[in-house]
Amino acid sequence: MSTSTRARRGARGFRRLHVLACATSLAGFGWAAPALAQDGNLQNSTTSQPAAPQPAVPSTANTTTASEAGQPQDAATAQDVSQGNSAEGPGEDIVVVGLRGSLQRNLDLKRTSSGVVDVISAEDIGKFPDSNVAASLQRLPGVSIQRNGSRGEPTGITVRGFGGDFNTTLYDGRRISTATGGRQIDFSTVGVDFIGQLSVLKTPDVSLASSSIGATVDIAFPKPFDHPGFRVAATGSGSIQDRSGKIVPTGGLLISSTNKDETFGVLADVIYTKRDTDTNRVYVSGWPGGNYAPCQLAGFTGTCTPTADTNSAAYATASNRQNLPGWFPQQYGAEQQRVQDERVDARIALQYHPSDDLMLTIDNNFSRQKITQENYAFGVWFSQGSLRNVTLDSNGTATDFTQTGTPTDFTAALNKQILQTNQTGMNVKYDATSNLTLEGDVAYAKSWLNPGNVIGSANGDIGYGNALSNNLRFSVLGDSKDAFPTISGYGPAGNAAGWADQSLIGSHVTVNQTQHNTDELVQFRGNATWKQDNVTLKAGGQYYQDTFNFRNQSTFTNNFWQAYAGYGAPSGSTTGISPLPSSLYQGSVSLNDFIPGFKGSLPPSVFVFSPIAYQNYLTGLGNPSATRVPGFNYGNVNGFTGTFDEAVDPGSVLRVRERTWSLYFSANFKTEIGNLPFTFNAGIRNEVTNLVATGQGRLPTSITTSTADPTLLSIPTYTAVQGVTNNSSYSYLLPSLDAKLELTDNLILRVDASRTLTRPSLSLLNPVLNVGNGQRVGALSASGGNPNLKPYLADNFDLGAEWYYRRNSYLAVNFFLKNVSNFIVGGVTRQAINGLIDPTTGTLASFAVSQQVNGPDATVRGVELALQQVFGDTGFGFQANATFVNTNRPYDSTNISQTGFAVTGLANSANFVGFYDKGGFQFRTAVNWRDKYLLQFGQNQNTGSFGSEPTFVNQSFQIDLTTSYDISKNFSVFGEALNVNNNQQSTHGRYSNQLLDVFDYGRRYTVGARYRF
Predict the structure, then answer these.
(1) Distances from the Cα of 300 to the Cαs of 131, 296, 297, 327, 396, in angstroms?
(2) Nearest to 199, CA basis, from 212, 182, 189, 188
(3) How far apart are CA 747 and CA 51, in angstroms?
(4) Which secondary-structure segment (H or E) carries 12?
(5) Annotated region Disordered: where (predicted)?
(6) φ and ψ at 188, to 5 degrees?
(7) What's the rounded Cα separation, in Å, for the pair 233 and 256?
(8) 187, 532, 915, 931: which could join 133 in a potential S-S bond, CB 3.0 to 4.6 Å?
């Protein structure tokens, strides 16, 4: 294509752009004057040429024409008079590149948007500001992150207090499939190196989506015509976590090229990422609530027989009656988790642009993440009725107690999770006239969790118990933010010196389990956009079908997990193998100073051994069904032939097909009110959804005790499996209004109102009750779904002001309010199932049944504050934001009813990024703080009598450092230090001294280089 032809195309595209983004143009052509006025020492920096071209149209506007889609997305949005990181364009234009150029583009897009939008854009092709998508998003006001405890990686976001499924993530405006079981994306599965832009829409664009009460996150990937010509970007780095001590690589390559006539382009990239992390964890699996008998409390010296059975003889003695509410730790232990996270991301995009009026884009996105985790741990199990000498604090938490007959387990696990996703899409944009653009988009995506013959978790559990059980003492030393519990009296028969005596250790349970999911998504979208003068009209429709399949298989289902339970002869048992071969032991992990900075003491160590070698050893003992194998758990385990094969749990099988039809219309007007520029955008979206959920139901017909282990129960028989199908549907009208008034050239007032929805997680829609085989004494549990769940609905209101007081600087305040109805409550009720008798009590078995229902309403309100300041030509600047939120439905810890409810995810947060960016050198310090918040209802062990117990996340404070230096125009080096203050993640239950988890995932250092051409 000739220079004159390209110029004509650019001129035509710019004229069309002017109608839609006049404010951005003014920022590009008119901002230099006030900037110069404030920075008098820079007046000689002006040039005689026009400013560099703006990017086509903000992707958040979702109104790009075919002609605009073919315009280059230039590295700078406008002329900047500073002499910092800059590059000369045609006619010796001086434009900002690097971090400050990226920040200015973000402000331009935010300012010109009709709704409340925040944007993060790449500094250049192949150079995104952060190494993780969620880490970038947390720099935005109102956005905070959730970290994976064992990896320390940001995996999810919360926007204005709403996390997980409340936020919709799109790839180039398309929904993506995820086989994790929810609707949210795991952001650690997204390769960040070659992302072009992240947009967070806090108010909805009805032509894009209205299915998020929190926000819609649109991830835009680069395309060939964003940067015409031949482009290459490559990155390579090595990182090390301070505890793992192993350097692991990351590398990526992007190649983009357009032909000479600029009618065809191709872009391809691939990224390989690896992270190794060793994390120390201390845990309590749950703090279930129940009732103590007075005889269990400290100071009682008589006979104690706790009971709630009014017909029993023991109930006649008042001190035996269980009538004192309180909480206890179900299981306590510590483990080291050694995690390897490997990810491959690949993308190819083809664009055909035969004329200004037509653009065809075909792309394919692929990702595959494999997480391999080795765990080495110890654990001790408690039962409320077995506790003695109990001290309850004023809240009813057991802060000190003893338990006789406590077994000790050492565990090793090899966990694997493979998450693979592939999405293919085609988009066509056609400018039918100078005013009318037609667009069609189709995409198909599929995601797999653990495809093939993967064993998700292979577990080996050894230890001692029965005759070698101990009189264990458990003590809570303080708050969960800086203390974990202490145990004493440990060791075989209470001999601490024999804690790790291999001659006394025998086999216990062996659990293999795997979750297999698929999520298949088909979607179509078509719309027409009419632009004329200061009016833009858009109408269209969308259809998607999401088909989710869920299946769990384990050795719980066939009861093979108890094949060699019992610990062996040293523990006084006829089942179990002891001693185990010394060759199985591969060393140990010291528990001394295990969580630096936390009070509390632990036993000396945990064993390192391979669960695969352990299982192979037990398999090598022979086939118990064909020959007598000493130590096998005869009478409790049937059909075992020597191998720990998994069996599908019928109650876990679920298929959900969700179809949604949407029609939408929006109108955008630009006018004046009293000579003040005014933009008004009104839209409406109608969504009709049909759901078909199919499961497999069965009920247990008996419960038996285990002769090998007094803490275990089995369900040997069930009723026949029956398929259960449920149909449901719903329809909602979702309006949206956005108004923007420019009070001055630099001051904008915004008012927004909308209705949005969030659909229930697909995994909650199972139409059957599932009673698993792996039950424990005193902890009978079951779970059930609800296929008739309706979406959460929210009426949202925003009022904000933005002051762009100088170039690359602004101050903003935004008040928001959300009235949310149809909250889904995951309650726990105690109930009998199929008339079963508990063999340990002789009474009707009481199961803790977890189920979900649509319930109460709630209001969430808050304010976001944001400030960005660049100090002239010094290269220094900062970004700061804070969010303050509250609700009329906070958590009430004194409510012990089955229907307790509160809004999850709400927490005040603040972020600060200070930076220096000049002369090719860049340095950033990021400080992120989030206050304590309610994460969810439910704990790892949730078998109590007071409903679904909560999980709170303690406040966190983390500091990250990044730096880079441009050695030449095309080559740069960079470094990164994450979590330099060694922030630790901790959680607690109903009260702050009920520690659930503390993770110490350490610091990570990265050094690398980038090449761009």
Answers:
(1) 58, 7, 6, 19, 18
(2) 212
(3) 23
(4) helix 3-20
(5) 42-92
(6) -75, -5
(7) 9
(8) 187
Beta strands at 94-96 and 408-431: parallel, antiparallel or unpaired: unpaired
What are the tokens at 246? 């192993």
Residue with token string 């599908």: 648
| pLDDT at 129 (0 to 100) | 65
Say if residues 243 and 278 touch (Cβ distance below 8 Å): yes
CA distances (Å), origin 448, targets 172, 174, 518, 612? 21, 18, 5, 25
Residue type, 964: S
Q: Say what percent of the chain tops pLDDT 90.
A: 61
DSSP 172-217: TTEE---TTSSSS--GGGS--TT--EEEEESS-BTTTB---SS-EE
Measured N-to-C along each axis, helices 3-20 and 22-30 cross at an angle, to the nearest 10 degrees, of 120
CA dist., res. 504 & res. 466, Å (int) = 12
**384-390 own/partner pairs: CB under 8 Å, 24+ apart:** 384/288, 384/290, 384/292, 384/328, 384/778, 385/306, 385/322, 385/778, 387/292, 387/296, 387/328, 388/296, 388/304, 389/296, 389/297, 389/298, 390/292, 390/296, 390/297, 390/298, 390/326
pLDDT for 73 equals 63
pTM > 0.70: yes or no = yes
**Which residues, other chains included, contact 266 with Cβ-Cβ below 8 Å and sequence gap of 6+?**
224, 256, 257, 348, 349, 350, 351
Give the whole-angstrom CA distance, residue 227 versus residue 429: 19
Give the list of residues 6+ apart from residue 965 with CB closer than 8 angstroms, or none. Answer: 920, 921, 922, 972, 973, 974
Instruction: Render 299-365 in DSSP notation, one character per residue.
Output: T--S----B--TTSSGGGSGGGB--EEEE--SEEEEEEEEEEEEEEEEEEEEEEEEETTEEEEEEEE
746 φψ region: left (φ > 0), alpha (ψ -120 to 50), beta (else): alpha
In angstroms, how far is the first alpha carbon of the chain from the final one? Answer: 21
**Are the C-beta atoms of residues 429 and 438 closer than 8 Å to each other?**
yes
Kindly report the number of other CB atoms within 10 A of residue 439's CB atom. Answer: 24
pLDDT of 49: 33
Q: Tell me the mean pLDDT per 10 residues along the chain, length 1013.
A: 42 36 32 32 32 37 69 49 40 57 84 87 70 78 80 81 84 89 77 82 89 88 91 93 90 94 94 93 94 96 90 92 95 95 94 94 95 96 94 96 95 95 96 95 96 92 94 95 95 95 96 95 96 94 94 92 94 94 96 94 96 97 94 91 93 92 95 93 95 88 80 80 89 95 94 93 81 76 82 94 93 94 75 85 82 84 94 92 92 80 86 91 92 88 80 93 92 92 94 96 93 89
CA dihedral sign, ordered 96, 100, 105, 109: negative
pLDDT digit string, tens, across residues 71-115: 776 543 333 333 334 444 444 444 556 777 788 888 888 888 888
Please, which residues bridge with residue 427 across strands?
361, 441
Distance (Å, rounded) from C-alpha 970 to C-alpha 601?
53
Q: Distances from the Cα of 10 to the Cαs of 72, 73, 434, in angstroms?
A: 9, 12, 15
Cβ–Cβ < 8 Å for 784, 827:
no
Cα–Cα–Cα angle for 131, 133, 137, rounded to 5 degrees? 115
Enter the DSSP assignment of 581.
P
The owner of tokens 């590009």 is: 28
Q: Which of 163, 759, 164, 187 is nearest to 419 (CA)?
A: 187
Using CA atoms, how far residue 227 sits from 199, 224, 827, in Å, is 20, 6, 53
Beta strands 168-171 and 216-220, pairing class: parallel
CA–centroid distance for 747 within its chain? 36
CB atoms within 10 A of CB 620: 8
Distances (CA, A) of 608 to 92, 353, 565, 605: 65, 60, 20, 10
Phi, psi (degrees; rounded to nearest 5) at 473: -115, 135
The residue type of 568 is: G
Residue 127 half-sphere exposure, CB side, CA atoms within 13 Å?
27
